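U., I forgot to send this yesterday:
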Amino acid sequence: MNEFELFTMMYFWIDNYYSDTTDDRINNLIGEMNPFLWEDIGSADPAYYAEFCHYIKDKTITIDNGFELAKGFIKTIDYVDVTEAFEKPDYDKWLDGCRRYIAGEHKGGEAREIL
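Result:
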């Protein structure tokens, strides 16, 4: 799993968790994190993906530790608190989603190293 794949899974997780919210700040965050708006690897607001990559730095990303890495990054966001999405997770659902996502062809997958 690479940085972009983990960022995308984090986006999917937050977007799904808050799918029914009417909170404008949460909806703005989700929109700004959107990794599919542009053709390149990144987020709708490039600062979010850049901050995520800075947070990850030299950390090893695997399917098994991805959730904890995503959870750690979410805690660094000052704009709005979305940590609730990571407090009582269905960890099996996260793992299943990761496995299904990286198994198929997807944006950013060509740069993936399987760990």
